[in-house]
């Protein structure tokens, strides 16, 4: 009988960890109904995504395979998502065609903060970047989050520049 194939992204991301009743796993197509938009709204207020828009973007990102990973933390008891974060693997020419992990959009639901969930998600994203051979992981954050990211080993380097359209 044919065996189900392991999802390489899920296994690299260490899906299945359920310490504290939260399971950190890759984003799934059905997560729009588990509070994913509510989480994103805590990062940047915006109109909720339609299901079509979510599924279209999900499919686009899925085509990038392990070069774009969105992790979520699902609360086992309620099935709701309590945290999310993403890492994008950039393929460079410099550094002998090296790769860099960009950590983005880390958020923990306001009701679940202060329990180590944010740190666990960021550690998983960093592990994923390391596992993809990245020589560094980088991110932009507000000055007051220096201490949070320092817990995972990030150090302040350079300045962030932005040009918004
Ligand atoms: C790259 C980006 O995405 S930047 C955007 C980051 N996201 C946001 O700002 C959205 C709103 N904020 C949040 O979602 C959350 O507050 C987060 C993600 C910043 C932190 O998530 P939490 O789950 O509450 O953090 P967690 O409990 O894992 O904290 C881990 C450690 O960092 C510390 N920490 C948490 N927040 C901060 C902070 N703002 N400053 C200093 N230390 C902090 C905690 O005290 C804890 O330390 P301890 O182990 O010594 O007790």
UniProtKB/TrEMBL annotation:
GO terms for molecular function: glucosamine 6-phosphate N-acetyltransferase activity. It is a peripheral membrane protein. Its EC number is 2.3.1.4. Residues 1-24 are annotated as: Disordered. The keyword Endoplasmic reticulum applies. Residues 22-165 form the N-acetyltransferase domain. It is an enzyme of class 2 (transferase). It catalyses: D-glucosamine 6-phosphate + acetyl-CoA = N-acetyl-D-glucosamine 6-phosphate + CoA + H(+). Keywords: Acyltransferase, Endoplasmic reticulum, Membrane, Transferase. CDD domains: NAT_SF (cd04301). GO terms for cellular component: endoplasmic reticulum membrane. GO terms for biological process: N-acetylglucosamine metabolic process. It is found in: Endoplasmic reticulum membrane. It comes from the Eukaryota. Pathway: Nucleotide-sugar biosynthesis; UDP-N-acetyl-alpha-D-glucosamine biosynthesis; N-acetyl-alpha-D-glucosamine 1-phosphate from alpha-D-glucosamine 6-phosphate (route I): step 1/2. Homodimer. Belongs to the acetyltransferase family. GNA1 subfamily. This is glucosamine-phosphate N-acetyltransferase. The lineage of its organism: Eukaryota, Viridiplantae, Streptophyta, Embryophyta, Tracheophyta.
């Amino acid at each position: 009988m044919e065996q189900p194939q392991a999802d390489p992204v899920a296994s690299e991301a260490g899906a299945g960890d359920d310490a504290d009743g939260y399971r950190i796993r890759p984003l799934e197509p059905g997560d729009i109904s588990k509070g994913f938009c509510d989480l994103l709204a805590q990062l940047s207020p915006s109109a909720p995504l339609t299901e079509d828009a979510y599924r279209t973007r999900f499919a686009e990102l899925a085509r990038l395979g392990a070069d774009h990973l969105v992790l979520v933390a699902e609360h086992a008891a309620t099935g709701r998502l309590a945290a999310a974060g993403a890492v994008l693997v950039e393929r460079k020419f410099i550094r002998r065609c090296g790769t860099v992990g960009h950590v983005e959009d880390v958020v923990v639901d306001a009701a679940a903060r202060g329990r180590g969930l944010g740190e666990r998600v960021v550690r998983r994203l960093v592990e994923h970047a390391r596992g993809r051979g990245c020589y560094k992981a980088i991110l932009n954050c507000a000055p007051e989050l220096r201490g949070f990211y320092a817990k995972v080993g990030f150090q302040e380097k350079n300045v962030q520049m932005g040009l918004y359209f």
